[in-house]
Amino acid sequence: MSIRQKFAASSVWFVLGNATNNFVSFLIFVVLARLLDASTIGLVAFALIFIDLGRIVVFGGLPEAMVQRRHWDDDVASVCYTANLIASVVFVILIAGVAAPLVAAYYRAEAGPVLASLAAICFIDAARAVHESKLRREFRYKPLAARMSIATATAGVVGVWLAFQGFGVWSLVVQRLLNAVMLTLLSWRAARWTPRLMLSRPILRELSGFIFHLTPARLLTVVTARVAEFVIALVLGPAAVAYYRVGARGLEAISQLTVAPVQQAALSAFARMPNIEAMGAAYGRVTRASAIFACPVYLGAAVIAPDFVGIVFGPQWAPSGGIMTGLALSIGASTLGYFMQPALTAANRPELVLLSSIGGFFITTATVLASVWHGPEAVAFANTAQQYVALPFRLRLLASALKADWRKLASGPFAAFLASAAMAGSVYALRIYALESLSPAAKLALSALAGAALYPLLLALVARGHVRELIADVAPVLPARLALIFSSGSSGSGENR
């Protein structure tokens, strides 16, 4: 099977796994959001910011280094495994012994024990990071998808049961810890690889250049993604960050279904490209493919967000509707940004990953600090605006690494974004002029149906060639009879390029 076919197969399996995983995960989050108050959810969201940052420091870019390498080496993998475990132990001690008491003393007393308990996630995740890298580099996304669904469902059921029993914030803590443990155990079994505890100075020196640039870049990327929640929590309190978190949660489910499957497989696929030019072409294909699915869902979500949040999470979460709208409008820039780091990493240009991350961090931080005083909804809209402002700078960095025209790289999602924007505008007008008097549930259902009917027609007008190209990529991994139907349907006149 060619790299292109492996990439398509990986994405298909990840889509199927994520569809199941996200349905279960989202359902569990909805139940917990109805059982727990905003401050409780906000406390855990605040603590998880530290855990997400710690995971980047602990891993040090070593899992990505294993995926990026042309050939698997057991000694190198064992050194990465051992280094991750040692770093995770140090991190857990620092968080539980230093950070948690400070948070309890200077932020909120109840946040300290939560942070100390969740710190164990870093050690648990470190124990499986290299095993996941092995599965990813071998395009074995079927077991990855299966174990995500099993772990999410099991941990979620336990978390909901504990919430019903009145355990409050600890129901969320146990859910997170159990999910991490199950993911690790299932990854060990799927990878079929037993590491040795070993350290080697020559191997660490060999990886140091990659780690030196990639770790700060990944850290800055996560800080940039979570800085809004962190500042909102400090300035406006845990309830405000919970509203922001709920507004983002629906979009995360969409992202995991439409973009993450392709993004997860992208580094493995980019790293196997024969040359830089082929990598640039691959970047264009994956951004086009992602945009076809992601843009209509995100822009449609921006229109129906207030009704969606009120119906699904309950009227107490109404402020999250505007936040969801503001965040969803970023999809044009996000579709291109999702694949920049995998492409730069595969091109062995970690210094450009770092430069891009530094720029993104300062712009986002300044934007959040300027807008947080106007509430979490203002932060969401301001954050979206800055992504479009910074996009040309990031594209030029990518173009320099891939030896391509940045305007050509930017054109990938344009047709799908245009069709999606026209669809969203039409649905918005329909809601104002024809559906305003209906109940929120009726407006939500009719808006979704109208968007689903309109988007394929608009896409056929502006991006028929892109759809044919996507079908040609996916057809080899479909069952023979279905592949024949899709392949015959994709034949025809010239494509839009």
Index terms:
mainly alpha; 84% helix; disordered C terminus; globular; 23 helices; 497 residues
How would you sum up this structure, described in words?
This protein has helices at 3-35, 38-59, 62-68, 74-106, 111-118, 120-126, 129-137, 141-164, 169-191, 201-236, 238-258, 260-271, 276-312, 319-328, 331-337, 340-346, 350-371, 376-402, 406-410, 414-433, 440-462, 464-474, 480-490. The chain is mostly helical. The longest helix has 37 residues, at 276-312.
Number of strands: 0
**Overall pLDDT:** 81
CA-based shape: globular
Ends: how far apart? Answer: 26 Å
Helix content class:
over 70%
What fraction of the residues are assigned to beta strands by DSSP?
A: under 5%
Helix/strand order, N-terminal first: HHHHHHHHHHHHHHHHHHHHHHH
From the helix content, strand content and strand pairing, which structural class follows? mainly alpha
Oligomer: single chain
Radius of gyration equals 22 Å
Poorly predicted parts: 474-497
Q: How would you characterize the largest beta sheet?
A: none
**Helical run tally:** 23
Task: Offer a quick outline of the entry.
The chain is mainly α and 497 residues long. Helices cover 84% and strands 0% of the residues.
